[in-house]
Every structure is written in structure tokens, then in C-alpha cells.
Design goal:
The protein is α/β, with parallel strands linked by helices and about 575 residues long. Helix content is about 55%, strand content about 5%. The protein contains 22 helices and nine strands. The strands form three sheets. A five-stranded mixed sheet has the order 4-2-1-6-7, with helices on one face. A two-stranded antiparallel ribbon has the order 3-5. Strands 8-9 form a two-stranded antiparallel ribbon. Strand 8 and strand 9 form a beta hairpin.
Length: about 575
């Protein structure tokens, strides 16, 4: 037993760690397997990934800095509390993307993102190993790696900007278990200036300590009060500097939204372990077969070997213990430990959602907004790991039943791995669609100059489920393809029109409104445009075409006539080398 709130906590944990690392080669192998599996299911096609959505705001600029200029910019960014008063998130993106670009180009940024998430996998595995042993650490580790309620693990803005916050939380939890409390609180507090989503998961830290008795109550209350004080302090700071995401929330939203999200989010996170394999089974093709079969065989053999000494548990005793105190006392320590971990996992899962204010729905299953589930990965992985290990315990007395249970677990994980390739396919296609679009578009808009706006009909664009291609961040691309002598605010800009735009775009001045009702775009680029400043791009026979005019409600609106080229006379910007087909 580990005694709480004394110097013996550290000693006991270190003793437990030494006991659990007698077979260090097995633990190292576990880590290599988990990290290798993560590479396969999320980064196998990474050489063909590109830049998407938020990436286009920061990363191209970061690539172009000198080291000195980068450090100066990051320093000022932090001092000014930029980036919604959480400057470390964007600062991490600037720093890590720059390092990756210097090392291996665009793929280097992805490799850095992989290393950060791989470190988080290792820290999570080590955490569960410390408190619950290798079998649960391995199963929860598989569930962590294959977590797919959040599909944004490889998205550079998230792998470089959000995953470091999760790293800090894992380090804080390890520090807490090692009785380095002030260090743990400092690490957790820093998260509030990075990406705050996983911060409240740290509330569950005392639950990793044993025994669970009355001596835990006082330290738990103190811990909760410290966390609440941190949240209030940062909230007041953001209020003081007028951070819009804080001042724009009503009292009702502040109180009700977290409760709703805590109820909805865990269901979606846990349900994804069934739903994503189902989707993979429906989309089966040769590539998925070549992934699923080897992963199934490997996980089955590895899992069967790793759990060979798992003792059997009588289900009847567990059922009796629900109502019978004496039966509860007689439960094996393995079951009691799993019970504690199940509760801990559920608490962590619920605590992953109270700070998800920027996305209103927890039922989002596709795209960038699945980031609302990012912090839920640990809690969901622990819950799934406990359930699967309990099933193995129940089946351990029979070779047949244990083999069957391990087969079902391995097959579910293998299908989840297949779904990972479906996510990767979307990232590959989204980058191809962007390159194809810009390569085809530029010859049609060579005469675009200051104050011109290019409107693209959505029917002319291809989309993917898991990441946006030629989506809301289109306005930030053209002025990075060419170096315009004028200010970006008056340089020509490209917008993606909304479906049904024709019925909403004409205003009372017979000008075209570019606003939330007509385009998916960046608010700073909204405006009203005379039709002679507009270039309309639509699709015809699968190719982009430039329209001279359009008829809306019986009225003909004529657009900018073709004039002398402008773009070809400008120096090419940084993005040109990444986006435009070299044979163009």
C-alpha cells in the first residue's frame, strides 16, 4: 500500500517502480510497439501531407524566419499575451515547425509533431504502469494510440500546438505522484497559457494515489481549491486584457455549457471505439485489408503473450460484491485496482470537456472540430483498457475463451488501425486538392489586382471529411503565393462561396456582400464589392472556368473583364514552391 501525504509516498512509488521494471526489456518493447503502431496508423503517409486550414496562418511565416528573428518574435508574442492570451500554443507551433523545416522540410514539421505525441504515449504508458501494472498499461496504451474520436492528431497546428499541453499535463501528473507537488502545479499552470483544454484533467491527480480512504479527502479538497484558484486567476487576467473568447460568454454559457459537454463528450469518445471500426469495415478495400490483417495478427500474438500470467476472476463474486459488503472485501486486489482505475478514467474523461467553449457540439465526428475530444484520450483509454483487461481476467481460466477474447480485442484494434488509414487518405487527398486547385486557378486570375475579390463556387471544389481543403482559410493563400507590393488588406483575395449564395449575396446597392451568409472565410476579409471588382470561378465539365456574368433574380451582373496580367509580373512567394505543380 502507498500511504498518502507523507514522505513515504515517494519512497513507496519508487519501490513499486523498481518492482515493475524487473522486466525492463518487456516495457521497452511495449513502448516501441505502441509508438511504432502510432506511426503506422497516423503517419505512414506523412510524406504526402501538406498544410491545412489554421496551418496556413502561422506555419509558412515560421518557415521563413531566421533563428534570431524567430526567437525575437516568440519573445514578443509571449510578453504581449497574444493568441487569445495563451501565447505558448502558437509559440510552440512557430518553434517546432521551424525546427522541422530546417531539418527535413515540410515533412520535418510532421516528424516533430510525431515525436511530441510519441512522448505523450510513452508518458501515459509509464503513468499507468506506475499505478496499475503492465497489462493495463499495455491495453490502455493501445486504446490511447487508436483513439479516434479526435481525428486531428497529425494536423500540424494541433500536433505542434496542442500536444505540448498534454505533455505538460502528463509531466505534472508524474511530478504529483513523485511528491514534487509544487513542480506539478507549476507545470499544470503553464498549460493555461498554452492550450487549456486538458488542464482540468489534472484535477484527477489524487485519484492515482492509494489507499482511497478518509485521509484522501483533505488533500483532495486542497488540490481542487488550488486548481479552481488557477482557473479564476487566468480568467480574470483574460477579462482584464479584453480577450474576446472570455468577454463574449454569458454567465449562462459559462455555467451550462461545461455540464452539457461533460455529459455528451464521454459518450462520443467511448462510442468511437465501436463506431470507427464499423466505418472501417464498411469502407474495406485492398489497402485497409493490407493494414488490418497484419495488425490483427501482431496485436493478438503480442497481447496473448503479455497477458499469459493474468489470473482468472470469478464473475459471480463480482456480481455479489455489488450488493454484498463481505463479497466486496473478498474481491481480489486485481479487481479492486481495476475498479479504482475505472473510476479514475471516468473522472478524467468527464474533466476533459468543461473548457470546450469554442465548439458548441460534442457530437462532431469529422474534421478539425473533433479537437474537442483531444483531452479525452487518457480517460477514454483507461476506461477501455479496464474493460478489456477485466474481460481477459474473466476468460483467463479457459484457453479457448481467453483466445477468443484476445481475438476480438485484436480485431477491434485492427479495424481502428484501418480507420487511421482512412484519416490519412483524407489528409493526402486534401493536399492534392489544394495543389490542383491553385495550379488550375492561377492562369484564370492573372489580372487580379488590388481590391479585387475572387469568388469560387463550392461546386467547383472537392472536399474531404477529416480536414478542410480550400476551405475557410483561402483568403490567406494568394498573398503568400505572390509578393504583392501593396498591403495584404487591399491585395486580391479568394473566398469560398457558401451553397445557395445567389439568394443572399446582392445588397441594396447592387453590390455583392462577402460576409458569413455568403462565404466560408476569415472575418477580417469581409466586405462589400462592386461587381466590376469581382472574378467569379465556377466549374464546367470538371474544370474551373471564369464567368463574365451571372443572372440572379432576372438581373444580369457583369464581372471584372479580362485585363493585362498582374500576377506573372510579381515575385513568387514562399507558398508557391509548396502548392503549385512544378510543371504548371
Amino acid at each position: 500500500m502507498v500511504e498518502f501525504a507523507s514522505e513515504r509516498v515517494t519512497t513507496c512509488w519508487h519501490t513499486t517502480w523498481k518492482m515493475k521494471t524487473k522486466n525492463r526489456s518487456a516495457i521497452i518493447l511495449d513502448l516501441l510497439v505502441l509508438i511504432g503502431l502510432f506511426w503506422v496508423v497516423r503517419y505512414w503517409h506523412s510524406p504526402h501531407f501538406g498544410l491545412y486550414e489554421d496551418d496556413l496562418t502561422i506555419i509558412p511565416s515560421a518557415f521563413q524566419y531566421s533563428f534570431g528573428a524567430l526567437m525575437h518574435y516568440i519573445g514578443q508574442y509571449i510578453l504581449n499575451l497574444s493568441g487569445h492570451a495563451r501565447p505558448l500554443s502558437d509559440s510552440f507551433i512557430y518553434l517546432f515547425s521551424w525546427i522541422g523545416w530546417q531539418a527535413f522540410g515540410l515533412w520535418g514539421a510532421y516528424f516533430i509533431g510525431f515525436l511530441i505525441t510519441a512522448a505523450n504515449i510513452a508518458l501515459f504508458y509509464w503513468l499507468i504502469l506506475r499505478v496499475a501494472g503492465r497489462p493495463l498499461a499495455l491495453l490502455a496504451g493501445f486504446a490511447y494510440v487508436l483513439f479516434s474520436a479526435d481525428t486531428t492528431q497529425v494536423f500540424l497546428t494541433h500536433s505542434l500546438g496542442i500536444q505540448p499541453s498534454i505533455t505538460l499535463i502528463w509531466l505534472a501528473l508524474h511530478s504529483y505522484l513523485s511528491n514534487r507537488r509544487w513542480l506539478s502545479y507549476l507545470l499544470a499552470f503553464i498549460v493555461l497559457f498554452s492550450y487549456e483544454l486538458p488542464f482540468l484533467v489534472f484535477l484527477a491527480a489524487p485519484l492515482f494515489l492509494r489507499p482511497w480512504n478518509r485521509s484522501l479527502i483533505k488533500p483532495l479538497i486542497i488540490h481542487i481549491l488550488i486548481i479552481i484558484a488557477m482557473v479564476i486567476a487566468v480568467y480574470l487576467l483574460r477579462m482584464a486584457i479584453g480577450e474576446g473568447r472570455t468577454t463574449g460568454l454569458s454567465i449562462q454559457e459559462l455555467l451550462v455549457t461545461p455540464i452539457l459537454h461533460m455529459l455528451q463528450g464521454p459518450l462520443v469518445s467511448l462510442g468511437s471505439y465501436l463506431y470507427r471500426p464499423f466505418l472501417a469495415s464498411r469502407a474495406i478495400n485492398l489497402e485497409l485489408v493490407l493494414v488490418i490483417i497484419p495488425v490483427f495478427i501482431f496485436i493478438y500474438m503480442y497481447l496473448h503473450q503479455a497477458t499469459k500470467d493474468t489470473p482468472g476472476i470469478d464473475l459471480r463474486l463480482i456480481v455479489r460484491s455489488i450488493k454484498d459488503h463481505e463479497a466486496r472485501v473478498q474481491l481480489p486486489e486485481e479487481v479492486k485496482s481495476l475498479g479504482r482505475m475505472l473510476i479514475t478514467g471516468l473522472v478524467m474523461l468527464m474533466l476533459a470537456y468543461p473548457l470546450t467553449y469554442t465548439v458548441q457540439s460534442m457530437t462532431i465526428l469529422n474534421g478539425r472540430n473533433t479537437r474537442v475530444h483531444t483531452a479525452a484520450v487518457a480517460g477514454a483509454a483507461i476506461v477501455i483498457g479496464v474493460i478489456l483487461l477485466l474481460l481477459i481476467h474473466l476468460a483467463a481460466s479457459s484457453r479457448f475463451w481467453k483466445a477468443l477474447v484476445c481475438s476480438i480485442i485484436a480485431f477491434g484494434f485492427a479495424l481502428s488501425a484501418g480507420y487511421g488509414f482512412m484519416i490519412q487518405r483524407d489528409y493526402v487527398h486534401a493536399w492534392e486538392y489544394q495543389r490542383d486547385f491553385w495550379t488550375e486557378l492561377l492562369p484564370l486570375i492573372q489580372d487580379a489586382g488590388d481590391y479585387n475579390v475572387i469568388l469560387v463556387d463550392p461546386q467547383a471544389l472537392k472536399d474531404t471529411r477529416q480536414i478542410g481543403a480550400n476551405y475557410w482559410n483561402l483568403p490567406r493563400v494568394l498573398y503568400q503565393l505572390y509578393d504583392f507590393p501593396s498591403d495584404p488588406s487591399i491585395s486580391p483575395v479568394v473566398h469560398r462561396l457558401e451553397s445557395g449564395w445567389e439568394g443572399r449575396i446582392v445588397n441594396y446597392n447592387n453590390e455583392f456582400d462577402v460576409d458569413p451568409s455568403t462565404v466560408y472565410s476569415v472575418p477580417s476579409f469581409y466586405g462589400e464589392y462592386a461587381t466590376h471588382d469581382i472574378i467569379l470561378i465556377q466549374s464546367e465539365d470538371g474544370k474551373l472556368v471564369r464567368r463574365d456574368s451571372v443572372v440572379i433574380d432576372g438581373v444580369t451582373y457583369r464581372f471584372k473583364p479580362l485585363t493585362d496580367p498582374v500576377l506573372s509580373s510579381l515575385p513568387r512567394g514562399f507558398l508557391y514552391q509548396l502548392l503549385i505543380d512544378p510543371d504548371e
